[in-house]
Every structure is written in C-alpha cells, then in structure tokens.
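lol forgot to send this yesterday, sorry. struct tokens for the thing we talked abt
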C-alpha cells in the first residue's frame, strides 16, 4: 500500500521509473493516457510498427508537445529494450511470437518485463518465467488485465487463510459464439460493419473475445499463475450473476458445476436463451472462498457475506477492470519492489485450437478470432497427450490433413516451421514438462 510513497521518493531523488513500451494499441494508449498524471513515471521509448501512428496516439490521449519531443519513437521492440534509460519493458503487441522474442531479449538485457501479451504467456509462460527467474529478472502479468486482477484476489484469499474453490471472470457467452467469424461479429456488439470501421475496430480481435478464445487464453494464464485446475473438456461458461457465485462455483457433489475445489471458470452474463443474467459480472473478476473451519464460516454469516447452503462457500468480486489505465501498478511493483503482479508458476492449463467448421488439407489457419479455429482450455497434461496445437501457433500455418468441425487440431495436422523461435520455445517447454515427470497422460 505504499507504491505512491515509494515512487515519490524516486521522483524526489531525480530517478524516475522509465519504461519502454512495445505496442501502442488500445492497451498501450490507455497506459500512455495516465503517464502524465503519475509523477516519477516516464516513458522513455515507444516502439510500434508505425511510429508516426504512435505519436498521433500520444497526442490523442493528451500528451503535450514537450513530452512527445523527449520521447524516442522506434519501429523495433529491440530499440526499446536496448535503450539504456529503460528500466521496465512493457510488451503490449498481442502477437505471441513477438511477445516471446521481446521477453527473451528483455531477460537477456536484465530488464523487468511486464507482459500485457497474455497470448505469449499462455503459449510459453512456464518457459519465459523460468528463464526470468534464472536470470534474476522480474517477469510479470499486466495489472488491469483480468488475469493479474484474478491472481491478486487469489493471493489475498490464500494469504487470509481461505481455500480457493474457484477463480475467474465474467464474459458475454452463448455456445453458438464458438463458430462466429469476423464477418458476423458486429451484430453481436450492436454495430454495423461501417460503424466499426469508422471507429478503427478490428473485427478479428473483437471476435476473439466473442468466440471464447480470449477466455481460454486468459484462464490458461490464471491457472498457470495461481496453480489452479482447469476443466477436462473446456470452460463451461455457466450463466451466473454475482449473487449466485458461491452456489454455482462449488463442486458438483454439493450442487455446483465444478469438478472439484480449486478450479478456474468463466461465468456468462447471458442465460442460454439469450436473456441477461441479473447482476452479471461481464466486466469483472471473482474468487469463491471456502472457510476451513466452522468458526470462519460463522463469521461469513455474521458479517453479511452471501454464502451457499452449507455456509462455507462465499464469493468476493471486483465488478470492473480498467485495463491499461491500471497498468502502472505492475510497472511500479516490478521496478520498486521487484515483485510481479502475477507470474506463471506451473504449466496447468493450455489454450488449444478447435476447428470452427470442417477444415480441408491445404487450408491456412488464421489464428485467434478468425474464420478457422477457436481456442478451448484443457489441462496441459491432456494437451500433451493429444499433441494438440496451441492457439498461439495456429496462425499462418497450412493444414496437412482434414479436420472435422469441433475437433481438436493437432500439431501434427499442420506444417509448423520448426526453426521458428516461438515453435522452438514451445517445444522446449513441452520437453521440459515431460522430463519433469509431472505431466501424466490424460487421454
């Protein structure tokens, strides 16, 4: 609770925390909007594929000419990492291959790395976090994004002595969304294609939130950071409002929907008939606590917590998240405390590719939010046993055989470039998991 005071001391000493931002998209621009309001925090370099667009973004979010003039703009993430002034690297490209490359370069340069790029973390977080630990570098999830906020409340619950029965987030979900393509996405957001284009909105990116892919990716990151289990055959997305969290997100043996305690799950803001769930958690995160004594359970009741019928399960939640507006919390934690706001600890869950429709040999997969595949979250052990293709490697690769609609796409079904860095890192992570002997066959 003293980040502000610690930063004030750095500012007074003339040693501001300086950041290198890679990727000036929506998340990055929200972070940039807050920087002028945070004394002692500076962005030394902004790297973007279009540096002039990045400058325009800075003007749009309220930077004055003087701040823009003293900021270096580059087209290469390597420049941001190599800037001697930079203490913390923020990777916000959203591209898993780029994220892996930038993380490894930052680690080699002995610079803390904040990974907005949850796609890279879901693909190879165990490998990257381990490399960072070996190098004495802080590797962190990005506060403001839901995985880091979930990791925070899970840590709070465990530090307070509660068992974590479930943790996750809310979203808008119906089963039919899994097969939605970018052509049909805007109907679900209440926009026309022309309105979306005018607003600069990317149909494939927005579709990745709708078709369940982002939820799979984010919950893989949460499971791996919090050492929680994942459902055997994917997230269930039960319709559930805040008042029902404790009843719904408990084991099936008690009337809930979970396979057991200690699971990740995403709740839907829509009932299966499309009607809205009362007091939904579409924009928020939650944890379901389990009291480990009768006395603690009695305190739940005494202090007004809504509980399940047993009185032992109760929910805490945060109804909103502010995305990049909150990112400075991660930056300051890694710079001032050398502590991550969530970090991969074990490979527990994997976001893998599933065919949206019948796919034919020779077709090229187009990755998350596209026309060909969506991501399903399954246990990492099951993914290894199946030889499943991670969603982070399911872009710009050609199928070598047919895959039926609704079936897992396997790594052996596509022509992967085994020399590509992201593929090699993923292979190394899989090999290390097998050698550790803790990934039991699940099929």
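and heres what i got for the seq, position by position
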């Amino acid at each position: 609770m003293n980040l502000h005071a610690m930063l004030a001391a750095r500012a007074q000493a003339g040693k501001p925390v300086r950041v290198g931002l890679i990727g000036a998209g929506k998340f990055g621009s929200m972070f940039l909007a807050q920087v002028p309001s945070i004394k002692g925090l500076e962005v030394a370099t902004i790297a973007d594929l279009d540096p002039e667009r990045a400058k325009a973004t800075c003007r749009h979010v309220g930077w004055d000419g003087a701040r823009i003039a003293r900021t270096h703009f580059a087209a290469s993430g390597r420049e941001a990492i190599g800037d001697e002034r930079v203490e913390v690297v923020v990777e916000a490209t959203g591209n898993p291959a780029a994220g892996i490359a930038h993380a490894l370069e930052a680690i080699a340069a002995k610079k803390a790395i904040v990974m907005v790029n949850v796609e890279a973390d879901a693909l190879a977080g165990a490998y990257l976090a381990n490399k960072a630990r070996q190098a004495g570098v802080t590797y962190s999830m990005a506060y403001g994004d839901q995985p880091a906020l979930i990791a925070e409340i899970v840590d709070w619950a465990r530090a307070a002595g509660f068992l974590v029965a479930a943790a996750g987030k809310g979203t808008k979900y119906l089963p039919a969304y899994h097969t939605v393509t970018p052509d049909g996405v805007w109907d679900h957001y209440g926009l026309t294609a022309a309105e979306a284009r005018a607003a600069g909105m990317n149909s494939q990116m927005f579709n990745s939130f709708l078709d369940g892919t982002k939820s799979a990716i984010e919950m893989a990151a949460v499971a791996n950071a919090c050492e929680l289990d994942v459902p055997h055959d994917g997230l269930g997305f039960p319709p559930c409002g805040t008042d029902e969290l404790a009843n719904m997100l408990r084991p099936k043996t008690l009337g809930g929907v979970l396979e057991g305690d200690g699971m990740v799950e995403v709740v839907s803001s829509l009932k299966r008939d499309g009607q809205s769930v009362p007091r939904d958690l579409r924009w928020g995160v939650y944890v379901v606590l389990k009291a480990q004594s009768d006395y603690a359970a009695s305190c739940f009741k005494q202090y007004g917590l809504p509980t399940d019928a047993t009185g032992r399960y109760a929910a805490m939640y945060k109804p909103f998240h502010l995305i990049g507006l909150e990112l400075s919390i991660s930056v300051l934690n890694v710079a001032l405390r050398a502590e991550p706001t969530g970090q991969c600890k074990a490979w527990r869950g994997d976001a893998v590719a599933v065919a949206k429709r019948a796919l034919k040999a020779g077709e090229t997969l187009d990755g998350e939010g596209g026309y060909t595949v969506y991501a399903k979250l399954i246990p990492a052990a099951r993914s290894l046993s199946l030889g499943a293709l991670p969603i982070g490697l399911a872009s710009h690769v050609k199928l070598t055989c047919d895959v039926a609609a609704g079936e897992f796409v396997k790594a052996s079904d596509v022509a992967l470039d085994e020399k590509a860095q992201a593929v090699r890192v993923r292979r190394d992570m899989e090999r290390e998991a097998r050698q550790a002997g803790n990934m039991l066959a699940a099929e």
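The chain has 17 helices and 14 strands. anyway ping me if u want another try
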